[in-house]
Amino acid sequence: MYSLTKVRRLALGVAAAGFAGTLGLLALTAPAASAQTTSSVGWVRLAHLSPNTPAVDVYLYSFGDAKAQLVLDHVTYGTVSPYEQLAAGNYTVAMRLAGAAAGTKPVLSTTVDVAAGDAYTVAGMGPASGLRLTVFDDPLTTPSGKALVQVIQASLLQGSVSVRAGGHSLASGLKFGKATGFVAVPAGTWTVRAAGSSQAASEQISLAAGTVHTLVVLDDPGKLGIDDLLDAAGSIVAPSSGVNTGLGGTAARPGAPMLPWAAAGLVGLLAAAGGVIMVSRRRRPALHAR
Amino acid sequence: MRGSRTESEAPRLAGGEFLTAGQPALPGMSDSGLASCQDPGRPPARRRPGSHVAASSLGFPRNVRGARHASPVRVVRRPGAVVASLAGLVVVCGAVGGLAWASQTGRPAAAPGRTPFVAVPHGQWAAVPPAVAAPVARPVSLQIPAVGVRTRLIRLGLTAAGELQVPQSTTVAGWYTGSPRPGQTGAAVIAGHVDSQAGPAVFFRLRLLRPGDRIYVRRADGSLAVFGVSTVRMYRKTRFPTAAVYGPVPDAQLRLITCGGTFDPATGHYLSNVIVSATLISARSAKPAQQQAAEPG
User: If DSSP codes are grouped into helix, strand and coil, which group holds residue B31?
Assistant: First the structure.
């Protein structure tokens, strides 16, 4: 029965090849996944919010790099830089008196751990005698239809201030050198009023939905001032779901399915092989009979 | 007995001691496996001690009654098996033809082809992005020389269902009026079609953009905002990155949106979106380069 075994093996081989081919066809038609890379940048901005501290040079170093990545020259009180896009990682922020050599020991320094997709404000805060660098983690998400607002009290002349936006209280008895943290405020244009013990300031400030603001209460020479910083902005309303921007005129169009044909071919092969086996088997016993 | 057989023996043979009915037609295969290949009118898989090899050399078993090894009368003993073989071959040929036909019915995705020439715009350029949002004129046109895009920008709002409107025309792109203006703090959103029903549309080559490619947005006051591509990605619409596209960002960015991936003929829509992110390129308020270079390193 060797020959019969051969025939069977042949039939099994044909069947296996058929199945393998079918699997191969299926694998070819499966859609390829698109490769994605991850974004790895964060943002940092630098601010001088210490009223009686003279102008400074602010240096930003990537951790372990002696060469400054960014230098802001002659930064005076009330100055806030734009956000700088940085690769995620550790950074050192150092302040030197304006004009001091880059190699001299800084007056102040602090480290910032920049996470991808996050924004930070590094601000010199407090009086000159107690100057410190504070790192704020600035939010980049807002509740639907609202703005996020925080108040930084940087007025030395008014020891504490209270701030309202229309009927909404943003800060109450906020001490010099402190910040409130971010609170949600309904979108709209508000009369923002900051009041200290002896002075007050008022500004019309538009707080759009999807925006993040920092309101800095400052000593404007001789009077109180409010500086409205737009920390971040997004769409007023985020549209739902994806965007249907294609009608298919250039799309790959799938052909007629191949699987039924492959299956039919396989059945045909099996039938043919079976028939051949039946016919050939007829004569084999005679060989052994001899 | 061996080597010859008489007619008188036939009934005994037929009676069954040499019959193998009930045995598997093939070792390891059940009866049902090839049962249909056998002629029901004849005993299957008979063992006949006297048969010659030559008698069935063509695969046609001999008639029992006429079985003499000297003068075999060839009669098709198992037409079923032969028919099955032939039918199987016919089916295989048909299937091969079918596969060949099916493989020709598809259509590959249109190739991007050659990028049309679009000159780099010139004119008044965008200023340094301010820390406080300053008024910026609305965008009126878009140019991306790297992929041959030059289009005016229409305004897009929201549909009644709260989805982003798309341009009626497939040849223009649109700026979503609910997003920041290009060059303002925040991510300005511009959408355009990848194709029409007939062929390529305004953003057909968008997915070919690479990091660093320049995008120019002309604004109503004639100023020009210049962006550099940071990422080009594709997302399933069911997993659209809403926060990353429409959420707040601290600098001036751009999001270009079109379709990509697999087209679903049932819905008439693509299953994915291609999203290009770009950042405003501008002079920064940092020290000029030569001063940084002068630092002790």
Answer: helix
The predicted-structure confidence for B91-108, as pLDDT tens digits, reads as follows: 888 888 888 888 777 777
Compute the mean pLDDT over every residue in chain A, rounded to the nearest whole number: 86
DSSP string, B113-176: -PPPP-PPP-SSBP-PPPSSPPP-PPEEEEEEGGGTEEEEEEEE-B-TTSPBP--SSTT-EEEE
Give the torsion through C-alpha atoms of B189, B195, B200, B203, to 10 deg: 10
CB-based contacts of A144, cutoff 8 Å, min separation 6: A209, A237, A238
* Nearest Cα residue to B175 out of B162, B183, B166, B185: B166
pLDDT at B291 over 80: no
- Label residue B295 exposed, middle or buried (CB < 10 Å: 0-12, 13-18, 19+): middle
Dump the DSSP string for A253-275. B--S-SHHHHHHHHHHHHHHHHH
Non-local CB neighbours of A52 within 8 Å, separated by 6+ positions: A127, A128, A156
List pLDDT tens digits, range B201-244.
999 999 999 999 999 999 998 888 999 999 999 999 999 999 99
- Residue of B269, B275, B280 to mutate for A, most A C-beta atoms under 10 A: B269
B62: number of Cβ within 10 Å: 21
Among positive and negative, which fits the CA dihedral A82, A87, A92, A98? negative
The answer to whether the beta carbons of residues B292 and A71 sit under 8 Å apart is yes
Looking at chain B, which residue has its C-alpha nearest residue A227? B132
To the nearest whole angstrom, how far is the Cα of A121 from the nearest Cα of chain B?
11
Cα–Cα distance measured from residue A271 to residue B58, given in angstroms and rounded to the nearest whole number: 19
As given in the structure block, the two tokens for residue A287 are: 């060989």
The closest CB to that of B251, out of A1, A83, A270, belongs to A83
> What's the complex ipTM?
0.75
